Amino acid sequence: MQFKSHARTLAIALSLALIAGCSSTGGSRDGSMDGTRADGGVGTGTAGAGQVSGTGVSGDRAGQQADGRIPDVRTIYFDFDRDTIRSEFESVLVAHARYLRSNGNARVVLQGHTDERGTREYNMALGERRANSVKRFLEVQGVSPSQLQVVSYGEERLAVRGNGEDAHAQNRRVVFAY
Amino acid sequence: MKALMTIWLSAMLLLFSSLAQANLTIEITRGSDRATPIAIVPFSADGESLPEDVAQIISDNLERSGYFAPLPRNAMYDRPSSGDEVRYGQWRALDVRYLVVGQVSRGADGYRIRYELMDVSGQRRMLGESVSAGSNELRSGAHYVSDQIFEAITGIRGAFSTRIAYVTAQGVDQDMQFGLYVADADGHNSQQVLNSREPILSPVWSPDGRKLAYVSFETERPAIYVQDVGTGQRAQVASFDGINGAPAWSPDGRRLAMTLSKDGQPDIYIMDVGSRNLERITNNSSIDTEPAWAPDGRSLIFTSDRSGGPQIYRYSFGSGQTERLTFTGNYNARGRLSPDGEALFLIHRSNNGFQVARQDLGSGRLVVISETRSDESPSVAPNGTMVIFATQQGNSGVLGAVSADGRASYRLPSARGDVREPAWSPFLN
């Protein structure tokens, strides 16, 4: 199971690399460069972040939804300093890709967000990197670019207020807005 | 084409209301240890009750600048209202270097303010003037007097008659309310110029002080608008795919530098405001954003992560060359140059967090000047003496200001909601 998941990540990463070509994505940074994460567990932990979407539906179940319905999980979270898709959210993206392929008229706005640290316009750029990362993933999955629009909100629409790492983790997100 | 279309929006769309006030109050957080002692004696008013305490406004202005330490009123034994009533020995005994006395009288169309500035040690009058102010202009009259006193003593033009723009925000996520305001530099006389449920950010004054450029998400995506502050008339000037952000006026007011990501990654472009023609300045795969013009118009500074983390770079129009300006630490962003072009104010990530710092461009030395640790959006006063910025107090966004040398600071909290994105106007008179 773990191996399978790892292999899939690798396959996706490879196809992303092909598609991305020379477009460097660097890495999202949420204002800070050197990863002075107060709590090392937050980076990959989803407990806090997962609750924000309010659905409690795991990525795997989202992946099994019927093609006619918009997948329930519409928010995915990012690690500090990163725009890479976390493995536990790949199935969410796969489900959205399947829905969008099956519903060619459907359109979605990928809203990129950062936490509040750092400067606003720089965060605007970082939020766009995250949303573009999701966009590329969906395009590799066969979704037409014409169905996808990226809008970065940077730190302008925080999901949660507060200075703690929990709040920051819940704010670093891309939202699917259909 | 659509993106280039000018959309003139009716002033009807805008909420202009003198009732929609969000005045900021001022709390001095740090007085300068080098402040000059001065006494501003309460102005006599012929027994009339006046809507404003002119001497107090002057005193507050001078104290806020960090250059002056006004004598508390309860330490004044004598209350002269004109120069010939001044007994210098008394004030010398109080270690006061300068003394301001005056009178306010009501006239047919408003007020007349007479004031005199006395040099206590030299026992002489430095300045004396009679100023008329309209019936609603007593505060601006007091700001004018403050400007004259400040310049007479320091040799630096006063910036008390300037204004600030700022953004207010309430709520979280999908349930938010944003406001764009302009107010006097001391936070009074606030006036809402835009109200929206979608984000507003990056306001910046045109060099003539008449217009604001800013980013609004009112169409559910970012676009740059230019709005006449006096008439409310406004135009959407940039609404390309992707980011439309960080507008910055050229010193001649004819061009706007901005960040656009329409061609991939965010890059710096310059738009001729009249023709809407675009010129691309940067072109690479990194983030380039937050442009600001050098006062002489010959170069632009901007934030770029081309070296890994965000640092400030300078692009020179003459040579077409780009040089890196900041090397201290791994996060330096959102730079603004001093009016003389010799100092760079920016957000620097230190061990304490995100702070306002000043880098002297000659020596390259960077010094943190704020005491707060979640700072954003520094904006320099037109005389270069103060920097206003956004910071956090508890869980609220407030405005802070710090003297350019870091010695004096104050805060401008709002009664409710967050205040952020301050922009200091140019000189308006």
From TrEMBL, chain A:
Residues 1-20 form the signal peptide. InterPro entries: Bact_OuterMem_StrucFunc (IPR050330), OMP_bac (IPR006664), OmpA-like (IPR006665), OMPA-like_CS (IPR006690), OmpA-like_sf (IPR036737), Pal (IPR039001), Pal_lipo_C (IPR014169). It is a lipid-anchor. Residues 25-66 are annotated as: Disordered. Residues 38-57 have a biased composition (Gly residues). It comes from the Bacteria. It is found in: Cell outer membrane. Pfam families: OmpA. Residues 65-178 form the OmpA-like domain. Keywords: Cell cycle, Cell division, Cell outer membrane, Lipoprotein, Membrane, Palmitate, Signal. Transmembrane segments: none annotated. The Tol-Pal system is composed of five core proteins: the inner membrane proteins TolA, TolQ and TolR, the periplasmic protein TolB and the outer membrane protein Pal. They form a network linking the inner and outer membranes and the peptidoglycan layer. Belongs to the Pal lipoprotein family. Part of the Tol-Pal system, which plays a role in outer membrane invagination during cell division and is important for maintaining outer membrane integrity. HAMAP family: Pal. This is Peptidoglycan-associated lipoprotein. It comes from Billgrantia aerodenitrificans.
Automatic annotation (TrEMBL), chain B:
SUPFAM superfamilies: TolB, N-terminal domain (SSF52964), Tricorn protease N-terminal domain (SSF69304). Residues 24-125 form the TolB N-terminal domain. Gene3D superfamilies: TolB, C-terminal domain (2.120.10.30), TolB, N-terminal domain (3.40.50.10070). The keyword Electron transport does not apply. Keywords: Cell cycle, Cell division, Periplasm, Signal. Coiled coil: none annotated. Pfam families: PD40, TolB_N. Residues 1-22 form the signal peptide. It comes from the Bacteria. It is found in: Periplasm. The keyword Cell cycle applies. Part of the Tol-Pal system, which plays a role in outer membrane invagination during cell division and is important for maintaining outer membrane integrity. HAMAP family: TolB. Belongs to the TolB family. PANTHER family: PROTEIN TOLB, PROTEIN TOLB HOMOLOG. The Tol-Pal system is composed of five core proteins: the inner membrane proteins TolA, TolQ and TolR, the periplasmic protein TolB and the outer membrane protein Pal. They form a network linking the inner and outer membranes and the peptidoglycan layer. This is Tol-Pal system protein TolB. It comes from Billgrantia aerodenitrificans. The gene is tolB.
